[in-house]
Amino acid sequence: SAVISQKPSRDICQRGTSLTIQCQVDSQVTMMFWYRQQPGQSLTLIATANQGSEATYESGFVIDKFPISRPNLTFSTLTVSNMSPEDSSIYLCSVSGGETEAFFGQGTRLTVV
Amino acid sequence: GENVEQHPSTLSVQEGDSAVIKCTYSDSASNYFPWYKQELGKRPQLIIDIRSNVGEKKDQRIAVTLNKTAKHFSLHITETQPEDSAVYFCAASSGLGGGGNKLTFGTGTQLKVEL
Fold this sequence. Notes:
The structure holds two protein chains of two kinds.
Chain A: E1 4-7, E2 10-13, E3 19-25, E4 31-37, E5 43-50, E6 56-57, E7 68-72, E8 75-80, E9 89-96, E10 102-104, E11 108-112
Parallel strand pairs in A: 2-11
Antiparallel strand pairs in A: 1-3, 3-8, 4-5, 4-9, 5-6, 7-8, 9-10, 9-11
Chain B: E1 4-7, E2 10-14, E3 19-25, E4 32-38, E5 45-51, E6 56-59, E7 62-67, E8 72-77, E9 86-92, E10 104-105, E11 109-114
């Protein structure tokens, strides 16, 4: 199994500002994933982050809004840029144990005011 | 891309009864189907999963069945208990190789087990 530390756990931000979320894994992993969970909704994949290459974004998500870094095999960041109230969500990072179970960080609860 | 539909959106059962949640998927290449339980304010936790080469898997009170031909899979919880109350998500993945699982989630089922 993988242990994932994500921070901050929550934040309240002003609209127009940016927030960077960090995700640290206790083992080296090839791929890391960033999901968004809007209030009362399901999880939606934002992007897949590979070390040494640009992240791959899902339809509806763009790099300018959600820039991602992946400097090594145990760490990634997701930035939510130029925030609006519609960005208020829980953001979760995830890694896979081989090709099976996906493990999640505890999530970052973002409120934009 | 993959699309996963999940029903029902809410489910209320009496303690001790069984609960069944159903999902359908669209991508015939999907070969991995996990179920997650998410309690309020917590991260999703894997409760059971199944691969496409298996039709059924059971773990104590929880079982999952898969029909690849029909592209649907179901979660069965028997002898429900109040602590089973949570939101349950199904998901599907075709795997990315090299240690990656890009999951497409269903819309979730709010299960309430009443005393």
